[in-house]
Specification:
Structural class: mainly alpha
Shape: globular
Order of helices and strands: HHHHHHHHHHHHHHH
Strand content: under 5%
Number of helices: 15
Number of strands: 0
Helix content: over 70%
């Protein structure tokens, strides 16, 4: 078994256990026969549109990494590599608490294809900030539907406000990490203090200066990317388009369940999905499992009061399957392909190096013979 797969196996098992528990709880609170009847009569043409919009999301969402990875000074990162590294994020976000595993693994993946650590970190940090900008824009736009989303329910109002504040806070923190020298110095001092603790017996102190250089390099890359206004705004627009495709999926799921929702409800449903995800970002379970299902279902029922519990639950299960489990499966397959592509690339490079070394040896031997 691949060493990396062994390392992620415990997280994957925890994710599967949580998923099974949540599905059992959801089904136990509803009429399973009625849910089965609803799902049996799904209109597949509308469900196909849901998958189409998921594919559009998967195409446009990683494009920002490709654009951010283009540089005259440091060389362009291949589109295929950017697409695979961008797609890998879904799986590792899905199996880690607070959806925090995607970005570190993307940096690791960049390192495997020869991108410097500080450049990889700067690209991923900028990509994350761009994503947060797009999310905050959609959250603020969704506030126009605040009363329709909450229906006057106090706890939904509180959850939406907390979710918006949390996303703005996350955006502010990561911008500060990318721009502020003061934050960089604080981080460096903290890491220096930590690595010089007695328990490490001075063995890690040599990494203090390396960490400071890494932070300086990452900030330099971040600032350079931020200064390229056209590239920056293009990335924000691409992220917005990708997220809008993703947040539109429940609209087609409703149509597939026979709910007569008109096109004028699309913006409201995008707002509903935006806050379903935004207001559960602080839930520490992998992929916000448990919390996001609750939030989505409650907003679903609030937005469309006439909808029955079985239809709401069926919609929830379809939405979660398409946008989370199916997406994670695709992401995991892409991760395996990426590992194979990188392994073959390294073998090919090694053979080329060995061939050059052999040529040099033959050349030296021929010179000696002469």
């Amino acid at each position: 078994m691949n060493h990396n797969i062994k390392k992620i196996l415990p997280k994957l098992i925890l994710f599967l256990i949580l998923t099974i528990v949540v599905v059992i709880v959801i089904l136990s609170l509803n009429d399973m026969k009625e849910i089965g009847h609803v799902l049996k009569n799904v209109k597949w043409n509308w469900l196909a549109f849901a998958f189409l919009f998921l594919i559009l999301y998967m195409i446009f969402y990683p494009l920002t990494l490709f654009i951010l990875g283009r540089s005259k000074e440091e060389g362009n990162i291949k589109y295929r590599d950017s697409l695979m590294i961008g797609t890998i994020e879904y799986f590792f976000n899905g199996i880690t608490p607070f959806s925090s595993g995607g970005q570190p693994f993307q940096i690791y993946s960049y390192r495997k294809i020869g991108v410097s650590l500080h450049r990889a970190s700067g690209i991923i940090l900028m990509n994350f900030v761009i994503c947060q900008i797009a999310v905050v824009i959609l959250c603020i736009g969704s506030l126009f539907f605040f009363n329709e989303l909450t229906g006057g329910v106090a706890y939904l109002q509180a959850m939406i406000i907390v979710g918006l504040v949390m996303n703005i806070l996350i955006f502010t923190i990561f911008c500060s990490v990318g721009l502020s020298k003061t934050i960089r110095r604080i981080l460096s001092k903290f890491v220096g203090w930590f690595l010089n603790l007695k328990i490490f017996k001075g063995k890690l102190s040599r990494f203090v200066s390396a960490f400071d250089e890494y932070c300086a390099g990452a900030q330099s890359t971040f600032k350079a990317l931020l200064s390229q206004k056209l590239k920056f705004f293009t990335c924000v627009l691409l992220k917005l388009f990708g997220l809008i495709c993703y947040y539109s999926i429940p609209f087609f799921i409703l149509l597939s369940l026979g709910i007569d929702v008109t096109a004028d409800k699309l913006a409201l449903i995008i707002a509903m999905t935006t806050f379903s995800i935004a207001m559960t970002c602080y839930i520490p379970t992998p992929g916000a499992t448990g919390g996001i299902e609750f939030a989505f279902r409650q907003l679903f029922v609030t937005v469309i009061p006439a909808i029955s519990g079985s239809i709401a639950t069926s919609g929830l299960l379809l939405w979660r399957f398409i946008t989370y489990y199916f997406l994670m499966l695709v992401s995991f397959i892409v991760y395996l392909i990426f590992e194979e592509v990188v392994a073959r690339r390294h073998k090919r490079e090694q053979r080329e190096v060995e061939a050059l070394e052999n040529q040099e040896i033959l050349l030296q031997n021929s010179e000696n013979d002469v």
